[in-house]
């Protein structure tokens, strides 16, 4: 799957059905190419300068399903 495909998918938390946003980046192992974490951008950014919410980092083990339109994750958020 291409990164551009990940960016199009909405990330939903299974615990409370909260929309977390869309994937903006990910961390991976350079040797194996395996993805370790997905980074979901914080909301309400104005020209990349102001941000009312911090980025959300999701471990790959917390991803439950990757569908055609959404990524379902199972995380506890405060």
Helix/strand structural class: mainly beta
Helix content: under 10%
Number of discrete helical segments? 1
Contiguous low-pLDDT stretches (5 residues minimum) are none
What is the alpha-carbon Rg in Å? 13 Å
Strand order of the largest sheet: 4-3-2-1-6-5
> Largest sheet, described in full?
6 strands, mixed
Please indicate the percent range of residues in DSSP E strands (runs of 2 or more): 35-45%
Number of strands: 6
Element order, helices and strands? HEEEEEE
Give a quick set of tags describing it.
78 residues; mainly beta; 6-stranded mixed beta sheet
What is the fold's blueprint, element by element?
Elements: H1 3-7, E1 10-13, E2 19-28, E3 35-40, E4 56-59, E5 63-66, E6 70-73
Parallel strand pairs: 1-6
Antiparallel strand pairs: 1-2, 2-3, 3-4, 5-6
Description of the structure:
The protein has 78 residues and is mainly beta. It has one helix and six strands, in the order αββββββ. A six-stranded mixed β-sheet has the order 4-3-2-1-6-5. A hairpin with a 3-residue loop joins strand 5 and strand 6. The longest helix has 5 residues. The N and C termini lie far apart (31 Å). The relative contact order is 0.27.
Quick structural gist:
By secondary structure, the protein is mainly beta. The chain has one helix at residues 3-7; strands at 10-13, 19-28, 35-40, 56-59, 63-66, 70-73.
